[in-house]
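Running this now, will post back.
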Amino acid sequence: METNRAKMSHNRKSPELASAISAIRDLTAAKAEAEAQIANCLMSLATEKAMLDSLLDDPKTLANKQYLKAAKKACRVGIEAWNLSIAAFQNDVQTYKAEIDAILKRTPEARRDH
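Update: finished.
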């Protein structure tokens, strides 16, 4: 009789466990995507900084004065945008981790299956 109760209890938890495992897989994939986006943003940020450095090294002349001013401003705005994107993706990663942890607290048996 005790074995039947355990099976019945496990059967009732089965949809919850399947849902938890599915959610963890989805969140893990989303976390990996956000981490990949961070890597892409870091590469783009490095490129933007290198471009700004090269512009700062260019000698200013009457012919290129306006161009250099606009290009430097664009690079600085780009650098700020990449930094904000990185921060947003890092926040996403932390959110995904917290959601996974919350699921595992509610359904610890999901840990062994994912």
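The mean pLDDT is 89. More later if anyone needs it.
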